[in-house]
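Hi C.,

You asked whether I'd gotten around to modeling the 265-residue construct. I have! Everything is below, sequence then structure, no commentary in between.
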Amino acid sequence: MATFARYDMSSSDLTLTFLDVYTRVSDFLGLGTSPTGADLTKVKDIVYRGYRRFLLPMNLRVMRHHVWSFLRQTGQITTVTGQWQYALPLDFNYFWMEPTWGDNTRYVNPDPTSMARIMQMRAADKSNAHPFYWSLNTQKFTVTAGTQYEMVLHSPPDGEYTLVYGYTFEPDKPTDDGHYFIGGACASEAILEYSLAVAEEQEDDKQSVHDGRAKELTQGLIERDLKLVPTKLGKNLDRVTGLDNPSLARQLRYIGGPSTVYGVS
Protein backbone atom coordinates (compact mmCIF):
# COMPACT_ATOMS: atom_id res chain seq x y z
CA MET A 1 0.00 0.00 0.00
CA ALA A 2 1.32 3.43 -0.89
CA THR A 3 2.14 5.85 1.92
CA PHE A 4 1.82 9.62 1.83
CA ALA A 5 3.66 12.36 3.67
CA ARG A 6 1.97 13.75 6.77
CA TYR A 7 1.57 17.50 6.29
CA ASP A 8 0.24 18.16 9.80
CA MET A 9 2.31 16.29 12.35
CA SER A 10 -0.20 17.12 15.10
CA SER A 11 -2.94 15.17 13.32
CA SER A 12 -3.77 11.68 14.53
CA ASP A 13 -3.63 8.58 12.38
CA LEU A 14 -7.44 8.53 12.48
CA THR A 15 -7.63 11.74 10.44
CA LEU A 16 -8.76 11.12 6.87
CA THR A 17 -6.62 12.58 4.10
CA PHE A 18 -7.86 14.03 0.82
CA LEU A 19 -6.99 10.68 -0.81
CA ASP A 20 -8.98 8.74 1.80
CA VAL A 21 -12.12 10.77 1.19
CA TYR A 22 -12.14 11.01 -2.60
CA THR A 23 -11.35 7.31 -3.05
CA ARG A 24 -14.28 6.39 -0.79
CA VAL A 25 -16.52 8.67 -2.82
CA SER A 26 -15.22 7.04 -5.99
CA ASP A 27 -15.91 3.56 -4.63
CA PHE A 28 -19.38 4.66 -3.50
CA LEU A 29 -20.16 5.79 -7.07
CA GLY A 30 -18.93 2.50 -8.50
CA LEU A 31 -15.84 4.08 -10.08
CA GLY A 32 -13.34 1.96 -8.18
CA THR A 33 -10.69 3.06 -5.70
CA SER A 34 -8.19 4.36 -8.27
CA PRO A 35 -10.11 6.93 -10.35
CA THR A 36 -8.36 8.66 -13.22
CA GLY A 37 -9.15 11.30 -15.81
CA ALA A 38 -12.70 12.65 -15.77
CA ASP A 39 -13.70 10.30 -12.94
CA LEU A 40 -10.92 11.68 -10.73
CA THR A 41 -11.96 15.25 -11.51
CA LYS A 42 -15.58 14.39 -10.65
CA VAL A 43 -14.88 12.82 -7.26
CA LYS A 44 -12.51 15.60 -6.23
CA ASP A 45 -15.13 18.20 -7.13
CA ILE A 46 -17.68 16.31 -5.03
CA VAL A 47 -15.30 16.36 -2.06
CA TYR A 48 -14.77 20.10 -2.44
CA ARG A 49 -18.53 20.62 -2.36
CA GLY A 50 -18.78 18.47 0.74
CA TYR A 51 -15.94 20.40 2.36
CA ARG A 52 -17.69 23.71 1.69
CA ARG A 53 -20.83 22.42 3.41
CA PHE A 54 -18.81 21.46 6.46
CA LEU A 55 -17.13 24.87 6.61
CA LEU A 56 -20.50 26.67 6.64
CA PRO A 57 -22.58 24.49 9.00
CA MET A 58 -26.01 25.19 10.42
CA ASN A 59 -26.45 24.90 14.18
CA LEU A 60 -29.77 23.07 14.23
CA ARG A 61 -30.48 23.98 17.85
CA VAL A 62 -30.69 27.70 17.09
CA MET A 63 -31.11 27.53 13.29
CA ARG A 64 -28.25 29.81 12.39
CA HIS A 65 -24.81 29.33 10.91
CA HIS A 66 -21.99 28.35 13.24
CA VAL A 67 -18.49 29.79 12.98
CA TRP A 68 -15.88 27.15 13.81
CA SER A 69 -13.35 28.20 16.43
CA PHE A 70 -10.55 26.73 14.32
CA LEU A 71 -11.38 29.22 11.54
CA ARG A 72 -10.53 32.14 13.84
CA GLN A 73 -7.15 33.83 13.81
CA THR A 74 -5.65 37.07 15.05
CA GLY A 75 -3.67 39.60 13.10
CA GLN A 76 -2.13 43.02 13.51
CA ILE A 77 -1.34 46.12 11.51
CA THR A 78 1.43 48.60 12.17
CA THR A 79 0.44 52.00 10.87
CA VAL A 80 2.61 54.22 8.70
CA THR A 81 2.47 57.99 8.91
CA GLY A 82 0.01 59.35 6.34
CA GLN A 83 -1.14 55.91 5.11
CA TRP A 84 -4.89 55.38 5.44
CA GLN A 85 -5.39 52.06 3.52
CA TYR A 86 -4.08 48.72 4.83
CA ALA A 87 -4.44 45.40 3.03
CA LEU A 88 -5.82 42.55 5.12
CA PRO A 89 -4.60 38.93 4.82
CA LEU A 90 -5.39 37.19 1.56
CA ASP A 91 -7.46 34.56 3.42
CA PHE A 92 -9.47 37.20 5.32
CA ASN A 93 -13.21 36.53 5.52
CA TYR A 94 -14.55 38.93 8.16
CA PHE A 95 -13.80 40.29 11.63
CA TRP A 96 -14.83 38.32 14.71
CA MET A 97 -12.96 40.82 16.90
CA GLU A 98 -12.95 44.46 15.88
CA PRO A 99 -9.60 46.30 15.55
CA THR A 100 -8.23 47.62 18.86
CA TRP A 101 -5.04 49.41 19.77
CA GLY A 102 -2.18 47.21 20.93
CA ASP A 103 -0.35 47.10 24.26
CA ASN A 104 0.50 50.24 26.20
CA THR A 105 -1.85 52.43 24.19
CA ARG A 106 -4.19 54.67 26.16
CA TYR A 107 -6.18 55.91 23.20
CA VAL A 108 -9.86 55.06 22.84
CA ASN A 109 -10.28 52.19 20.39
CA PRO A 110 -11.34 53.31 16.90
CA ASP A 111 -15.03 53.12 16.09
CA PRO A 112 -16.41 51.28 13.04
CA THR A 113 -18.10 53.43 10.41
CA SER A 114 -19.14 53.25 6.78
CA MET A 115 -16.80 53.73 3.85
CA ALA A 116 -19.04 56.57 2.69
CA ARG A 117 -18.46 58.44 5.95
CA ILE A 118 -14.72 57.86 5.74
CA MET A 119 -14.71 59.46 2.29
CA GLN A 120 -16.82 62.38 3.53
CA MET A 121 -14.38 63.00 6.40
CA ARG A 122 -11.43 62.78 4.02
CA ALA A 123 -13.04 65.34 1.75
CA ALA A 124 -13.24 67.73 4.70
CA ASP A 125 -9.84 67.04 6.27
CA LYS A 126 -6.94 64.75 5.29
CA SER A 127 -4.46 65.94 7.88
CA ASN A 128 -2.62 63.32 9.90
CA ALA A 129 -3.79 62.61 13.45
CA HIS A 130 -4.57 59.70 15.72
CA PRO A 131 -7.20 57.58 13.89
CA PHE A 132 -10.60 57.42 15.55
CA TYR A 133 -12.52 55.52 12.83
CA TRP A 134 -12.06 52.44 10.71
CA SER A 135 -14.01 50.80 7.91
CA LEU A 136 -13.76 47.58 5.95
CA ASN A 137 -13.41 48.09 2.21
CA THR A 138 -13.38 45.66 -0.71
CA GLN A 139 -10.46 46.02 -3.09
CA LYS A 140 -10.95 45.76 -6.84
CA PHE A 141 -11.95 42.20 -7.75
CA THR A 142 -9.84 40.12 -10.12
CA VAL A 143 -10.49 36.57 -11.29
CA THR A 144 -6.96 35.56 -10.27
CA ALA A 145 -6.91 37.04 -6.76
CA GLY A 146 -10.64 36.87 -6.01
CA THR A 147 -12.25 39.12 -3.41
CA GLN A 148 -9.71 40.91 -1.22
CA TYR A 149 -10.28 43.30 1.66
CA GLU A 150 -8.57 46.28 3.22
CA MET A 151 -9.03 48.33 6.38
CA VAL A 152 -9.15 52.10 6.02
CA LEU A 153 -8.51 54.58 8.83
CA HIS A 154 -9.43 58.19 9.56
CA SER A 155 -7.66 60.35 10.27
CA PRO A 156 -4.54 59.13 8.48
CA PRO A 157 -2.09 58.10 11.25
CA ASP A 158 0.40 60.68 12.49
CA GLY A 159 2.83 57.99 13.59
CA GLU A 160 3.42 54.31 14.15
CA TYR A 161 0.65 52.49 16.05
CA THR A 162 -0.29 48.84 16.37
CA LEU A 163 -3.83 47.61 15.70
CA VAL A 164 -4.76 44.06 16.65
CA TYR A 165 -7.84 42.25 15.36
CA GLY A 166 -9.44 38.84 15.01
CA TYR A 167 -10.66 37.43 11.72
CA THR A 168 -12.08 34.28 10.25
CA PHE A 169 -10.18 32.81 7.34
CA GLU A 170 -10.83 30.54 4.40
CA PRO A 171 -8.57 27.47 4.58
CA ASP A 172 -6.64 26.34 1.54
CA LYS A 173 -8.36 23.56 -0.35
CA PRO A 174 -6.53 20.22 -0.38
CA THR A 175 -4.87 19.35 -3.66
CA ASP A 176 -2.25 16.68 -2.86
CA ASP A 177 -3.33 13.18 -1.81
CA GLY A 178 -1.71 13.52 1.61
CA HIS A 179 -3.30 16.87 2.47
CA TYR A 180 -5.53 17.07 5.55
CA PHE A 181 -8.81 18.88 6.06
CA ILE A 182 -9.06 21.45 8.82
CA GLY A 183 -10.63 20.41 12.13
CA GLY A 184 -9.05 17.05 12.97
CA ALA A 185 -10.16 13.41 12.87
CA CYS A 186 -13.83 13.84 13.77
CA ALA A 187 -14.19 16.73 11.35
CA SER A 188 -12.75 14.62 8.53
CA GLU A 189 -15.40 11.95 9.18
CA ALA A 190 -18.12 14.59 8.87
CA ILE A 191 -16.53 15.86 5.65
CA LEU A 192 -16.60 12.30 4.28
CA GLU A 193 -20.32 12.04 5.05
CA TYR A 194 -21.01 15.42 3.45
CA SER A 195 -19.10 14.30 0.37
CA LEU A 196 -21.09 11.06 0.15
CA ALA A 197 -24.29 13.08 0.59
CA VAL A 198 -23.28 15.34 -2.32
CA ALA A 199 -22.54 12.25 -4.41
CA GLU A 200 -26.04 10.91 -3.68
CA GLU A 201 -27.70 14.18 -4.59
CA GLN A 202 -25.64 14.75 -7.72
CA GLU A 203 -25.75 11.25 -9.16
CA ASP A 204 -29.01 9.84 -7.76
CA ASP A 205 -30.95 13.08 -7.13
CA LYS A 206 -31.87 12.06 -3.59
CA GLN A 207 -31.01 12.61 0.05
CA SER A 208 -30.50 9.54 2.18
CA VAL A 209 -28.60 8.26 5.19
CA HIS A 210 -25.38 10.16 4.46
CA ASP A 211 -26.99 13.59 4.58
CA GLY A 212 -28.55 12.81 7.96
CA ARG A 213 -25.34 11.31 9.28
CA ALA A 214 -23.33 14.36 8.18
CA LYS A 215 -25.71 16.71 10.01
CA GLU A 216 -25.65 14.51 13.11
CA LEU A 217 -21.86 14.46 13.23
CA THR A 218 -21.66 18.19 12.57
CA GLN A 219 -24.11 19.02 15.36
CA GLY A 220 -22.01 17.03 17.80
CA LEU A 221 -18.90 18.87 16.65
CA ILE A 222 -20.67 22.22 17.03
CA GLU A 223 -21.68 21.36 20.60
CA ARG A 224 -18.08 20.47 21.38
CA ASP A 225 -16.79 23.58 19.64
CA LEU A 226 -19.10 25.81 21.67
CA LYS A 227 -17.41 24.60 24.86
CA LEU A 228 -14.37 26.57 23.76
CA VAL A 229 -16.40 29.80 24.04
CA PRO A 230 -16.30 31.43 27.53
CA THR A 231 -19.58 31.42 29.43
CA LYS A 232 -18.94 34.96 30.73
CA LEU A 233 -18.03 37.93 28.56
CA GLY A 234 -17.13 40.37 31.35
CA LYS A 235 -18.77 43.64 32.30
CA ASN A 236 -20.40 45.82 29.68
CA LEU A 237 -18.52 49.12 29.81
CA ASP A 238 -19.60 50.43 26.42
CA ARG A 239 -20.45 54.11 26.21
CA VAL A 240 -23.71 53.30 24.45
CA THR A 241 -25.85 50.34 25.50
CA GLY A 242 -28.29 50.23 22.60
CA LEU A 243 -28.43 47.40 20.07
CA ASP A 244 -26.92 49.73 17.48
CA ASN A 245 -23.65 49.44 19.39
CA PRO A 246 -21.58 46.81 17.50
CA SER A 247 -19.64 45.79 20.62
CA LEU A 248 -22.79 45.06 22.59
CA ALA A 249 -24.49 43.54 19.58
CA ARG A 250 -21.76 40.90 19.37
CA GLN A 251 -22.80 39.69 22.82
CA LEU A 252 -26.54 39.71 22.22
CA ARG A 253 -27.07 38.63 18.68
CA TYR A 254 -25.39 36.99 15.71
CA ILE A 255 -23.63 39.27 13.25
CA GLY A 256 -23.30 37.74 9.82
CA GLY A 257 -20.53 38.30 7.35
CA PRO A 258 -19.28 37.24 3.95
CA SER A 259 -20.13 33.57 3.53
CA THR A 260 -18.31 32.32 0.49
CA VAL A 261 -15.74 29.58 0.40
CA TYR A 262 -13.71 28.99 -2.77
CA GLY A 263 -15.98 31.51 -4.48
CA VAL A 264 -19.22 29.56 -3.86
CA SER A 265 -21.98 30.92 -1.62
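If it helps when you're writing up: The longest helix spans residues 185-204.

Thanks,
B.
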